[in-house]
Amino acid sequence: MATTAKYHSAFKKKKFKIREYNRCPICGRPRAFLRRFNMCRICFRKQASEGLIPGVRKSSW
């Protein structure tokens, strides 16, 4: 219940800009957020390996 409440309160507009923080819209994770792709690292990796993010490929060398 507390996690759900935090998830929903994170997407509300805050009174002061400094209080805003990024959460992954897919899973709600507050840490390891990638601004460029607007998701956390775990969701990014999952979607990139499935080929759902255009222009992203798994590198190998």
UniProtKB/TrEMBL annotation:
GO cellular component: a single term: small ribosomal subunit
Q: How is the cofactor bound?
A: Binds 1 zinc ion per subunit.
InterPro entries assigned: Ribosomal_uS14, Ribosomal_uS14_bact, Ribosomal_uS14_CS, Ribosomal_uS14_sf
Q: Which GO terms describe its molecular function?
A: rRNA binding; structural constituent of ribosome; zinc ion binding
Residues where Zn(2+) binds: 24, 27, 40, 43
**What is known about what this protein does?**
Binds 16S rRNA, required for the assembly of 30S particles and may also be responsible for determining the conformation of the 16S rRNA at the A site.
Which SUPFAM superfamilies does the protein's record reference?
Answer: Glucocorticoid receptor-like (DNA-binding domain)
Q: Name one GO biological process term.
A: translation
Q: Which protein is depicted?
A: Small ribosomal subunit protein uS14
Q: Which PROSITE patterns match?
A: RIBOSOMAL_S14
